[in-house]
Specification:
- This protein is an alpha/beta fold and 233 residues long.
- The protein has two domains: 60 residues, Ribosomal Protein L25, Chain P (Beta Barrel), CATH 2.40.240.20; 158 residues, 3-Layer(aba) Sandwich (Alpha/beta knot).
- The chain has seven helices and 13 strands.
- Strand 4 and strand 5 form a beta hairpin.
- Helix 2 runs parallel beside helix 3.
- The two termini are 20 Å apart.
- The relative contact order is 0.16.
């Protein structure tokens, strides 16, 4: 199968069989990627629509739908108590691993208070990682929520896990069973307080361990996503 460069667009850019590229997208296609008019690329709307497109100067002509789907057969929501540093990489690598939604959380030990510009950067990173990893869906990156708000948002979901190092909790790899949707919650530097763990348990989160070693706040989300996604490879 030929390899084509990928570009995520907004749905409003597609009209019938034509896609109109923004100026930054034109710069990316023709200056950064060095593509030429008449070359072909895959265009995604980030919500599951994807098409093989022949490039023009400012528009692309849709040739056919692009049906290759590399998505996991499960929706994974990653809740992360924001670490002080490194969340950019968490977003990028979580996207590569197949996450469907990322909820940044302000917990008792969270020091980072991200600006609107930082949140928009995370969304741009998720889009870029979607293109790079040849996914069809761009993960949803929510605005940061308070700890209790994040629990309430996911209250209706059944399969939920919270990582609790230094506690007597079962290994995620031992207890995880396949589901249509799962929520995983990891802490920032210093982890969760006892009160936060108790609050999560009250919302039906299952405490789990990722092993005997203490992982960095930016490592734990990637380990837990790897454990889950490995079940579907």
């Amino acid at each position: 199968m030929p390899h084509y460069q990928r570009l995520v667009i907004d749905r409003t850019q597609k009209q019938d069989q034509l896609i109109t590229f923004t100026k930054p997208q034109q710069h990316y296609l023709y200056r950064v990627l060095r593509l030429q008019p008449k070359d072909k690329a895959i265009v995604l709307d980030g919500r599951g629509g994807s098409w093989l497109v022949e490039l023009g100067e400012a528009q692309g002509q849709i040739l056919q739908p692009w049906e290759v789907d590399n998505e996991l057969p499960i929706k994974i929501t990653l809740m992360v108590a924001l670490p002080k540093h490194g969340f950019d990489e968490v977003v990028h690598q979580a996207t590569e691993l197949g996450v469907g939604r990322v909820i940044p959380v302000i917990s008792d030990r969270t020091l980072l208070r991200p600006s609107p510009q930082k949140i928009q950067r995370w969304r741009s990173i998720a889009q870029e990682a979607t293109e790079q990893s040849e996914r069809r869906l761009v993960p949803q990156i929510l605005d940061p929520l308070a700890f209790r708000e994040s629990l309430e948002l996911t209250s209706a979901l059944e399969h939920k896990y919270i990582c609790t190092p230094r506690q007597d909790a079962p290994s995620l790899s031992d207890i995880y069973s396949k589901a249509l949707e799962v929520v995983v919650f990891t802490g920032c530097e210093g982890g969760f307080t006892d009160q936060e763990v108790e609050g999560a348990i009250a919302y039906n989160f299952q405490p789990v361990s990722l092993g005997k070693r203490i992982l960095r706040a930016v490592t734990a989300p990637l380990v837990i996503l790897s454990v889950i996604s490995s079940r579907y490879i």
